[in-house]
Amino acid sequence: MSIYHVGILVGSLRKESYNKKIAQFILEQEESQFSYRIIDIGELPLYNQDFDDEGNPPASYNRFRQDVASLDAVLFITAEYNRSVPAVLKNAIDVGSRPYGKNKWDGKPAAVISSSVGAYGGFGANHHLRQSLVFVDLLTMQQPEAYLGEITTCLGTDGKVESQKTKDFLRSFKNAFEQWAERIIHTNGQD
């Protein structure tokens, strides 16, 4: 049985990020042929095409691009900033898609989970992010969608996902994503 490598990109740098707590819950659910790991995006300098044009990209760009190339699938877990995607996440997408013609995201299955302290669950960020994912040719799962509203009510005092309803939903979402990813991987002959 093949092991599929899934990178989790968290769209928040905050130490106590709710999205990091969701990612941690996903990491703790490994009981399948999918191996998850968080890919750090906080150290990437803002994308500047001059780095690539001059043939001298930062070492962090090279490491990140190699990490993305090694993945079979990608899970984005993001906050919403001003009805959009956090800059750190958009920057990571840009770095991974460049230089032109060397897009590391190309054809990989993906999914998006968004959250917020408000009722809408990061709806704006989720859909804005999907626009960029289409352009870089990430094959993003359409259903089920994942918007975790009022995320603070889902976490316990220890910061872990505590709500049984949220746990059940995240497990169900993860299972759907894995089925989606496996189908895409097989269809693309990456297996």
Task: Jot down its keywords.
191 residues, alpha/beta, six-stranded parallel sheet
Walk me through what this model shows.
The chain is built from 6 helices and 6 strands. It has helices at residues 18-28, 49-53, 59-69, 87-97, 123-135, 164-187, and strands at 4-11, 34-38, 73-78, 109-115, 139-140, 146-148. Strands 1, 2, 3, 4, 5 and 6 form a 6-stranded parallel beta sheet that branches. The longest helix is centred in the last third of the chain and has 24 residues, at 164-187. The chain is globular.
Would you spell out the secondary-structure blueprint of this structure?
Layout: E1 4-11, H1 18-28, E2 34-38, H2 49-53, H3 59-69, E3 73-78, H4 87-97, E4 109-115, H5 123-135, E5 139-140, E6 146-148, H6 164-187
Parallel strand pairs: 1-2, 1-3, 3-4, 4-5, 4-6
Quick structural overview:
The protein is α/β, with parallel strands linked by helices and 191 residues long.
Distance between the termini: 10 Å
Largest sheet: 6 strands, parallel
Find the count of extended strands (DSSP E, 2+ residues).
6
| Portion in strands | 15-25%
Uncertain spans: none
- Category from helices, strands and their pairing: alpha/beta
Mean pLDDT across the residues is 94
- Please write the string of helix (H) and strand (E) elements: EHEHHEHEHEEH
Shape: globular
